[in-house]
């Protein structure tokens, strides 16, 4: 009886070559990959092993076909020649590959050392379908930005720019076009059974080639260990010339995984837009400090969160500055070389204490400790502009743009500094670029409208105020509403001005206000000088964060600046002479 071909395959156990052999080969390749990553072996070994396994596969199929049945089958001369020929071809091809292919690690290092100067670290993709891991997908890359900045000479873009990229731009082409970066570090977090796996890759955005890639198991909720593994593996792919010789000793992370997790969750929430999110962020920072009282970044984060509240008048001054001042003083005492602490300290002295000389000393200290600290560049630049030192302010604003090209913070500062310096066209362009990227940014429309007001483009200024108004859910804050009124007034939209003033003063009074500086400017536009000076004096006594505006000539007519009462009140602020 003739035996079918399928029966022959079964009897001769050829199935082993198509089932067992690939499974065994996969295990072998995984083992080789592990040793390459663990001990820095030549990366070509993985492909070499694959070539040898492919040759072995053909030998396995022939062997099982000829000797798979029960009993002993003699190895024929012809069969020996075929095995020998396959072996020779495999070895020759493997030798050719080994001799001619470039070591991937060496390629990576040579590529990284040529023209790579700017790195964009993107938020990781959360592929777990579990929103509770967002703090990892945002927090890990943010911490990597800090680590890589501290350990290498690469210019690492801040999260303010990289995290706001549209999903469609989170690729090599988008990063190169939007951020002008040379390198892109991305990753994804996946859940395998009950374990989390983090996959990372470093890509040359110029040609799209992957320079480095690795995968890491997130074990025991130990995010500290995970970040160390990622950082160390990445650094091995970079040439020694890319690493800083004198590395900062700043304590950027806690050795306690629970502390680091609280800090990362707080950072994720601190970028929210509501007071509830801000309070949750503060609670995480406070919990981090309770566990590790020496964890400096958490103190600075608390102080910074409070300063942001102060700038936007979302709480009373005492509530804001007491905790902020204590937190930042503790941070500096624990680590006097932590740049970010001096940024926040400078902001407290600028917006809270009106101690201009000490504010500048703190900003300068932050800049001296880390000249690539974007927050230091932006806030020091804004301070210099407030002191009417525009040339210095513009230099720092431009440098911040290089490091942080598309964030609201850097673009707003560039537009604001140019506005104060009376570079109105440049200011308008900066705000327009920002609005192209952030089309729902209310203050962007207000300040571009402000700029257009000075350019006598009143119709366009009105369009901006209308757009801003449409984005506001109800009434805006005191300062926002006062800016509407000023644009209406300067542009001679009298009906709009009077209506806005009437609505404003129907809600703002002695017992119901947030920003007395804003109230004073409304009375100035209303030509009520007595109440303007009354609220100006009130602003100075209460130390409103916005009082520095009284020192800026742009917002005040010569008549007001020469008014004896204004000169008397302004003298209380001790502005430095230009």
TrEMBL record:
SMART domains listed in its UniProt record: TPR
One example of a Gene Ontology biological process annotation: receptor-mediated virion attachment to host cell
GO cellular component, one term: cell outer membrane
UniProt keyword annotations, A-Z: Membrane, Repeat, TPR repeat, Transmembrane, Transmembrane helix
Keyword Transmembrane helix appears in the UniProt entry: yes
TM stretches of this protein: 18-39, 45-65, 81-99
Electron transport recorded as keyword: no
Protein's UniProt name: Uncharacterized protein
Species whose genome carries this gene: Formosa maritima
């Amino acid at each position: 009886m003739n035996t079918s071909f399928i029966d022959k395959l079964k009897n001769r156990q050829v199935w082993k070559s198509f089932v067992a052999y690939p499974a065994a080969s996969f295990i072998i390749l995984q083992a080789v990959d592990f040793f390459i990553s663990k001990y820095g072996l030549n990366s070509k070994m993985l492909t070499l092993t694959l070539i040898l396994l492919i040759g072995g596969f053909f030998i396995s199929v022939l062997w099982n076909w000829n000797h798979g049945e029960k009993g002993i089958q003699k190895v024929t001369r012809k069969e020996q020649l075929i095995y020998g020929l396959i072996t020779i071809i495999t070895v020759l091809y493997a030798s050719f590959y080994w001799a001619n292919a470039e070591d991937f690690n060496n390629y990576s290092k040579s590529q990284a050392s040529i023209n790579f100067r700017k790195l964009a670290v993107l938020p990781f993709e959360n592929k777990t379908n579990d929103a509770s891991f967002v703090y990892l997908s945002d927090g890990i890359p943010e911490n990597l930005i800090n680590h890589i900045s501290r350990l290498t000479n690469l210019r690492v873009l801040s999260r303010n720019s990289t995290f706001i990229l549209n999903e469609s731009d989170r690729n090599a082409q988008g990063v190169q076009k939007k951020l002008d970066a040379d390198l892109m570090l991305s990753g994804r977090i996946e859940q395998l059974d009950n374990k989390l796996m983090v996959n990372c890759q470093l890509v040359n955005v110029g040609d799209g080639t992957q320079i480095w890639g690795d995968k890491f198991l997130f074990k025991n909720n130990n995010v500290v260990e995970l970040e160390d593994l990622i950082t160390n593996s990445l650094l091995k792919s970079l040439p020694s010339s890319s690493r800083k010789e004198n590395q900062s000793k700043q304590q950027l992370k806690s050795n306690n995984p629970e502390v680091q997790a609280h800090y990362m969750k707080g950072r994720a929430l601190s970028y929210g837009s509501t007071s509830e999110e801000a309070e949750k962020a503060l609670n995480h920072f406070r919990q981090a400090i309770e566990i590790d009282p020496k964890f400096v970044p958490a103190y600075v984060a608390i102080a910074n969160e409070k300063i942001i509240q102060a700038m936007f008048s979302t709480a009373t001054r005492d509530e804001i500055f007491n905790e902020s001042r204590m937190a930042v003083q503790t941070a500096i005492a624990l680590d006097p070389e932590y740049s970010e602490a001096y940024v926040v300290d400078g902001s407290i002295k600028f917006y809270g204490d009106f101690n201009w000389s000490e504010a500048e000393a703190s900003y300068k200290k932050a800049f001296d400790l880390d000249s690539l600290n974007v927050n230091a560049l932006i806030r020091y630049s804004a301070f210099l502009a407030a002191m009417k030192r525009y040339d210095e302010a513009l230099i720092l604003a431009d440098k911040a743009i290089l490091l942080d090209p598309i964030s609201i913070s850097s673009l707003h500062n560039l537009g604001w500094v140019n506005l104060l310096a009376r570079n109105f066209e440049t200011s308008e362009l900066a705000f327009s670029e920002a609005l192209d990227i952030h089309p729902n940014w209310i203050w962007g429309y207000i300040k571009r409208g402000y700029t257009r007001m000075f350019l006598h483009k009143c119709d366009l200024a009105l369009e901006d105020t209308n757009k801003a108004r449409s984005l506001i859910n109800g009434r805006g804050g005191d300062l926002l509403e006062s800016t509407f009124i000023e644009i209406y007034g300067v542009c001679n939209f009298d009906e709009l001005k009077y209506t806005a003033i009437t609505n404003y003063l129907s809600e703002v009074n002695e017992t119901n206000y947030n920003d007395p500086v804003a109230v004073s400017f409304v009375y100035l536009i209303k030509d009520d000088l007595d109440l303007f000076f009354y609220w100006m004096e009130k602003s100075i006594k209460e130390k409103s964060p916005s009082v520095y505006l009284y020192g800026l000539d742009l917002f005040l007519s010569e008549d007001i600046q020469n008014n004896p009462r204004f000169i008397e009140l302004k003298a209380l602020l001790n502005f430095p002479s230009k």
